[in-house]
């Protein structure tokens, strides 16, 4: 057997797509696994001819399919006999409860009694029938066997009556069950006649089988969708993590990298704006000064300023002269201080006498 050709790394990712997903056995293989381990996809592709989509080997899958078909046949046979058995048990229960005919005929009553006896003998025969066991042949229950039940069989004429009326009884009850099922499945058929409803029973089985097939197809489709949902649910977190990593890298490389340049431009813009604001304030100040002081006012203020500066200079000269004289007086010693005080008193007395003379002269005139 020739070895399968090697699958390249990108082929492993391609096999995980919608078109190639059916080529691989059932597994939880992600794109990262296929990219990191190219041989894994190659191995799975090599195992594909020997495995079915569920993961079983091909011979085992065929045996399982054959066993499933045989199980379906046996189940159908069991259901057929079980339905007949339950139908007859229901007829017997109705007879015991008195829900049948108000006054059943002797022949019908005899038929039901024979049927009940025959059903009981059948159940007893199944119970007493020896079956295989781990310890070999199992002894019969209570020491009784199937031949012991032959003595309890109804008379031959009653069995003949049972064989004669049993098909009619089963047919009638099956017809009633079918009409009840038809009323449930198609409520609009209740208004039709008896013959029309009986005619509707023939395609009823095909319709129910088709509806069952649609239901099974829907369930199979639902299982496929649930599997796809699980795979997508497992793949989406990986995709979201990759997207988050990409966004983080873009934020680090572009957004934060350009933030320093943006801050520098904003700083330069604010500096220029502050300089323009200061110039505007200075312009407003000069405009106010220009509106407040006219050229004539400026000349007058200049003249006043020149006069004030001359007076200040004169006072400063006088202050310097007085300080110089005071320093000279202080250098003469304490004896001169007494003379200065006496001179000051004499000057005060002279000034008082001058004032008194002036006042006396005003009084004489």
Automatic annotation (TrEMBL):
Endpoints of the signal sequence: none
Molecular function GO labels: microtubule minus-end binding
Coiled coil is among the record's keywords: yes
Coiled coil: 305-332
Origin species: Mauremys mutica (yellowpond turtle)
GO CC annotation terms, alphabetical: HAUS complex
One GO BP: centrosome cycle
Protein name: HAUS augmin-like complex subunit 4
Pfam families the record matches: HAUS4 (PF14735)
Record has Coiled coil as a keyword: yes
InterPro entries: HAUS4 (IPR029327), HAUS4_met (IPR026214)
Keywords in alphabetical order: Coiled coil
């Amino acid at each position: 057997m020739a070895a399968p050709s090697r699958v390249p790394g990108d082929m492993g990712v391609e096999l995980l797509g919608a078109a190639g997903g059916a080529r691989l056995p059932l597994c939880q293989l992600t794109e990262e696994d296929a990219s990191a381990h190219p041989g894994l996809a190659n191995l799975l592709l090599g195992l594909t001819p020997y495995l079915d989509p569920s993961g079983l080997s091909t011979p085992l899958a065929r045996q399982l399919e054959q066993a499933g078909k045989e199980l379906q046949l046996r189940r159908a046979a069991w259901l057929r006999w079980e339905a007949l058995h339950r139908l007859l048990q229901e007829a017997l229960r109705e007879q015991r409860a008195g829900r049948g005919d108000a006054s059943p005929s002797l022949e019908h009553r005899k038929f039901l009694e024979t049927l009940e006896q025959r059903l009981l003998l059948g159940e007893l025969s199944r119970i007493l029938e020896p079956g295989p066991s781990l310890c070999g042949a199992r002894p019969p229950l209570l020491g009784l066997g199937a031949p012991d039940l032959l003595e309890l069989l109804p008379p031959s004429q009653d069995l003949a009556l049972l064989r004669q009326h049993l098909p009619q009884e089963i047919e009638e009850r099956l017809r009633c069950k079918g009409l009840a099922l038809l009323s449930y499945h198609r409520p609009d058929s209740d208004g039709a006649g008896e013959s029309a409803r009986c005619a509707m029973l023939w395609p009823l089985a095909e319709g129910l089988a088709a509806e069952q097939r649609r239901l099974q197809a829907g369930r199979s489709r639902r299982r496929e969708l649930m599997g796809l949902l699980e795979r997508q649910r497992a793949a989406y977190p990986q995709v979201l993590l990759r997207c988050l990593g990409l966004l983080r890298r873009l934020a680090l490389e572009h957004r934060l990298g350009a933030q320093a340049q943006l801050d520098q431009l904003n700083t330069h813009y604010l500096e220029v704006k502050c300089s323009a604001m200061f110039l505007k304030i200075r312009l407003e100040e000069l405009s106010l000064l220009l509106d407040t002081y006219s050229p004539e006012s400026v000349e007058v203020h200049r003249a006043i300023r020149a006069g004030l500066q001359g007076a200040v200079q004169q006072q400063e000269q006088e202050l310097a002269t007085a300080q110089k004289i005071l320093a000279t007086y202080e250098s003469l010693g304490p004896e001169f201080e007494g003379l200065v005080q006496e001179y000051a008193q004499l000057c005060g007395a002279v000034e008082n006498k001058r004032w008194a003379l002036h006042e006396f002269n005003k009084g004489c005139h």
